[in-house]
Amino acid sequence: MAQVLLRARSDHRDGAARPGCSRHRSRLSAAAAGEGPAAAKAASFAGDGGWDGLLSVTTAVSSAAGLLAFGVVYAWSFGREFSQGTITGLFALPTTRTMIAGAKLIVLCLWLIAATAILTGVTALLGRVLGYVPTAGSFALVAKLAATTLLTGALAVVCGLIASICRSMLAGMGSEIVILVLAQVSVLVGVGGWFPFAAPGLWAASNFVGSGVLGIQLAVLLATTVLAVWGTVLFWWRLRL
């Protein structure tokens, strides 16, 4: 901290010689001191730091980035058959297309569980390396991290459905951007809890920024996932060249 203060004084003296630098450096000093809206927003998630702060920030990032990461894989898995022209060969196989779609979903589900376990384990290992001491609420936050990642990854099935309907891998990936924009808009207008793709993030933040999600809203999220899975299997069952 002393080095930061000494550097700030030095920058203040040099600011007169280099116009425009003092304003930029003042912003850097504010950020280093934990000031400004960005630092305040980060602090609202991290709380007092430690285990709870690490888990809270990781959960918030997972709820936002999870849809992008898992959505790309779902869109690739179903859309590549059309983009690479291998869909025609599937009609010659004795295995039905319904079984193929179901097998894809099962494999992706197992991959989602494995990715969730790895993320949770790495976060816990990082906390131990940093020397954090678990608190009474740390285990609940670990469970919330795993649940948020699973819910977000399960919702990404919609990207696979869109890629199948549009017969394009890029369409499925592009739908992620539209979904994220709609999620942000729904939160801004105050109905984010009822929008399935915004609900995991709000639920993840409920303990430390005061934005809760009702049980019925989580039920809508689960229903959306089930409908997306059913719609994907149904589309592949009725698929024609």
Outline the fold blueprint.
Elements: H1 2-15, H2 21-32, H3 37-46, H4 50-83, H5 87-90, H6 97-129, H7 138-155, H8 157-166, H9 169-188, H10 199-204, H11 206-209, H12 215-237
Helix pairs in contact: 1-2, 4-6, 4-7, 4-8, 4-9, 6-7, 6-12, 8-9, 8-12
Can you describe what's shown?
With 241 residues, this protein is mostly helical. Helices cover 78% and strands 0% of the residues. It is globular and about 60 Å long. The termini are far apart. 29% of the residues are buried. Residues 1-47 have low confidence and may be disordered.
What is the subunit organization of this protein?
single chain
User: Into which percent range does the helicity of residues fall?
Assistant: over 70%
Bulk shape: globular
Alpha carbon gyration radius = 23 Å
Any low-confidence stretches, pLDDT <50, length ≥5? 1-47
Give the percentage of residues in beta strands. Answer: under 5%
Number of helices: 12
Q: Find the structural class using helix and strand composition.
A: mainly alpha
Q: What is the count of β-strands?
A: 0
For the largest beta-sheet, the strand count, sense and barrel status come to: none
Q: Give the overall pLDDT as a whole number.
A: 80
For the termini, the CA-CA separation is 67 Å
Order of helices and strands: HHHHHHHHHHHH
